[in-house]
Design a protein that fits this description.
There is one protein chain. With about 375 residues, this protein is of the alpha/beta class. The chain has two domains: about 230 residues, 3-Layer(aba) Sandwich (Rossmann fold), CATH 3.40.50.1100; about 110 residues, 3-Layer(aba) Sandwich (Rossmann fold). The protein is built from eleven helices and 14 strands. The protein has a six-stranded mixed beta sheet. α6 links the parallel β9 and β10. α5 crosses α6 and α9 crosses α11. The longest helix is centred in the middle third of the chain and has 22 residues. The protein is globular and about 60 Å long.
């Protein structure tokens, strides 16, 4: 079972901010930070580094486990016996939740959005791990998901489990709420310490934005740590909705944390809670949805293959592949960045769901060698 410890926040967290009580030790931390040599299409004069959150742990790999360290610590502390969360049929977050929950003796219940609920979902990609660890899968059609919404679906399943005498602990897709956000506040403390040890400064920090919680935590960390004041711009590439949607969602998370967007300086307390700039001032969000969430264009998959063959680093088609392509496009669109860092948030198992699209690209590549 993963160890639980009292959470000690970074020293730069402003006084009066309410911080989590406990944190589990689920991830292999710190994740590596190293130069991303040979990355294709990068403009001359720009040096790219990569923060390897894809190596945070095998079944738990990727950014989701940092959030789960806080979310599941609360579930255990409060005596819950099962967990409920939500995602797409190939959700990295649901897979990570299922594996982590089993490590803690909790039964995982996954509400998975799919185009059909009549067929067995199979064992492709993340579903293999979901089913290997014995997750209870609750398939929800896209139409039902749209009609009821995530909150109602979670409430209905919670009520069913409670009627059976269970004590469910529920959290939203991506673990993106006020508690899960602390995973990436803490990640900035880790990154800052690594960068300082190597005498590195970054002009920009890039990442894929999929549910808003990673964005919210990174933005707080960059702001409170002083990275932003030292010239580091935070840039998120949205992979499933518009920048305005995510700005509003992030501000909603901050509101539930007791943080309000009325004071423009670092730190400081008011009676209504710690205040800070709105999310629109804390980070830059760009639309890189492409053909749609979890839908891949030929250009995206071409780039993914190109990166793997040039650098040995595999990106996923849903998050990091789109985000890395968005990063190199942004570096050309807004030139002048000398050194940047890309946060690889994981998700490689999603590649298996793209087998039919990747096969001709790989065959073409092999034929040209």
């Amino acid at each position: 079972m993963a160890g639980s410890e009292e959470y000690t926040p970074p020293s730069w967290i402003p006084r009066g901010v309410s911080v989590p009580r406990r944190r589990l030790q689920l991830a292999n931390l710190p994740t590596p930070l190293h130069s991303w040599r040979g990355l294709p299409r990068v403009p001359d004069g720009t040096e790219v580094w990569i923060k390897r959150d894809d190596t945070s742990g095998c079944e738990l790999s990727g950014n989701k486990v940092r959030k789960l360290e806080f979310l599941l610590a609360e579930a255990v502390e409060k005596g819950h016996d099962c967990v409920i969360t939500v995602g797409g049929i190939q959700s990295n977050h649901c897979r990570a939740t299922a594996a982590a929950a089993r490590r803690l003796g909790l039964e995982p219940h996954l509400l998975l959005r799919t185009d059909t609920t009549s067929d067995d979902p199979g064992l492709v990609g993340n579903l293999m791990i979901d089913r290997l660890v014995g997750a209870r899968l609750h398939l929800v059609s896209s139409d039902e998901f749209a009609a009821k919404g995530q909150a109602q679906l979670v409430s209905d399943l919670s009520a069913q489990l409670e009627a059976d005498g269970r004590r469910p602990y529920a959290f939203p897709s991506g673990g993106s709420n006020e508690l899960g956000t602390w995973g990436y506040v803490q990640a900035i403390a880790e990154l800052d310490e690594q960068a300082e040890a190597d005498s590195l400064t970054f002009d920009r920090l890039y990442f894929g934005c999929g549910s808003g919680g990673t964005s919210a935590g990174l933005a707080l960390g960059v702001h409170w740590s002083g990275l932003g004041a030292r010239g580091c711009e935070l840039v998120g590439l949205g992979v499933d909705d518009t920048p305005d949607f995510f700005y509003d969602k992030i501000d909603g998370i901050y509101g539930r944390m007791g943080l309000t967007p009325e004071m423009r300086s670092r730190g400081g307390m008011q009676s209504r809670g710690e205040m800070l700039p709105s999310s629109r001032e804390l980070l830059r969000l760009e639309d890189h949805v492409g053909a749609g969430y979890a839908e891949s264009t030929a250009e995206e998959l071409d780039f993914l293959v190109e990166v793997a063959q040039a650098t040995g680093i595999c990106l996923d088609p849903v998050y990091s592949g789109k985000a890395a392509l968005g990063m190199v496009e942004d570096l050309h669109k807004r030139p002048g960045a000398k050194r940047v860092c890309f946060i690889h948030t994981g998700g490689m198992l999603g590649l298996y769901a793209k087998e039919s699209m990747l096969l001709p690209l790989l065959q073409k590549s092999e034929a040209s060698q």
